[in-house]
Amino acid sequence: MSDNNKPFSSFVIEPHFYDELNGDMEKIISYLEFIRLNINDLFKHKHSKYYIILYGDFRGNSAPAIGVINNDAIESKDFEDFDDLYNRVEEWVNLIGLDTIEEKSKELNVPKWKEILEIKQYPRE
């Protein structure tokens, strides 16, 4: 199968607000959950699945992030330009504003950081 018809794509979203929240993992997770629940309004993919995941770097640091998986060959092409997708998320978050995300995320039932460390992704399937 050629690269242009990949049946699977994935990428990670780490919005810019981690430093602004002073590493408060519980607050970061609640913000990510708000984004995860509403992000399909931005991407409009019928086949994408969004998760809060345990994400790490080459230094062994871990943080929550949003993992995106798509198994549709046509929609997967949208994931080929990671910079465009990242910029769309950043613009969307900036448009909504962190104050609004904070207010709306208070209403959500979200896992704690300790739970994300254990289960690796939320929701679990």
Question: Summed up, what is this model?
Answer:
The chain is built from 6 helices and 4 strands. The chain is an alpha+beta fold and 125 residues long.
Biggest sheet descriptor? 4 strands, antiparallel
What sequence of helices (H) and strands (E) makes up the elements? EHHEEHHHHE
User: Roughly what percent helix?
Assistant: 40-55%
What's the mean pLDDT score?
87
Low-confidence stretches: none
Q: How many DSSP H or I helices? A: 6
Label the structural class.
alpha+beta
Strand proportion, as a percent range, falls in: 15-25%
- The best one-word shape is globular
How many strands appear in the DSSP assignment? 4
Radius of gyration: 15 Å
Question: How does this model look, in words?
Answer:
Helix 1 (25-38) crosses helix 5 (98-105). This protein has helices at residues 25-38, 40-43, 73-76, 82-96, 98-105, 113-119, and strands at residues 9-13, 48-56, 62-70, 121-122. 26% of the residues are buried. It is built from six helices and four strands, in the order E-H-H-E-E-H-H-H-H-E. The model has no long low-confidence stretch (mean pLDDT 87). Helices cover 42% and strands 20% of the residues. It has a four-stranded antiparallel beta sheet with strand order 1-3-2-4. The two termini are 28 Å apart. Strand 2 and strand 3 (62-70) form a beta hairpin. The longest helix has 15 residues, at 82-96. With 125 residues, it is an alpha+beta fold.
Features:
125 residues, alpha+beta, 42% helix, globular
Question: Secondary structure elements and their pairing?
Answer:
Elements: E1 9-13, H1 25-38, H2 40-43, E2 48-56, E3 62-70, H3 73-76, H4 82-96, H5 98-105, H6 113-119, E4 121-122
Antiparallel strand pairs: 1-3, 2-3, 2-4
Helix pairs in contact: 1-5
